[in-house]
Amino acid sequence: MQLDFTRAPISPGTDRTRRLTPATTKPTTPRRRKKEAAPHWERGYRSHFYRNERGDKLGEVHLSDRGELPVVYRWAAGNYSGAEGSLAHARARVEETIGFGMRQLSLF
To answer: Where is this region: Disordered (predicted)?
Structure first.
């Protein structure tokens, strides 16, 4: 049996040449994390609810009863609640309270 040393090897022979040759598969792109959807306001007839992407209720704003003066917006979020004179201010309080509760405060 005669060996033919003039032919080039079909695959790279050494480990070093295997590492230096480009891969035949296409390069993988880094996977991006799915962005978490921001909480949103759900509008109701006399109340509004602040919900997260899964539909869990984080906070709420209710209009005072009919005939009750002065007209106020009562809000509740977590263990906090209060009353405001306008819907925009009540919503801001709920968002502020939820944002405060969701971030870790520094210890020192």
So the answer is: 1-40
Asked if residue 2 is part of any domain, the answer here is: no
Across 8-105, where does the E strand assignment appear? 40-43, 47-51, 57-63, 73-77, 80-84
In a domain, 88, yes or no: yes
Specify the pTM.
0.61
Q: Is residue 11, in this structure, part of any structural domain at all?
A: no
What is the count of structural domains for the chain? 1
CB 43 within 8 A of CB 91: no
Contact 75, 68 (CB under 8 A): no
C-alpha distance from residue 84 to each of 55, 70, 93 (Å): 25, 11, 9
Which of 73, 84, 80, 86 has the alpha carbon at shortest distance from 98? 80
CA angle, residues 9, 10, 16, in degrees to nearest 5: 70
Nearest CA to 77 out of 64, 63, 93 is that of 93
The predicted-structure confidence for 32-84, as pLDDT tens digits, reads as follows: 887 777 889 999 999 999 999 888 999 999 999 888 888 999 999 988 999 99
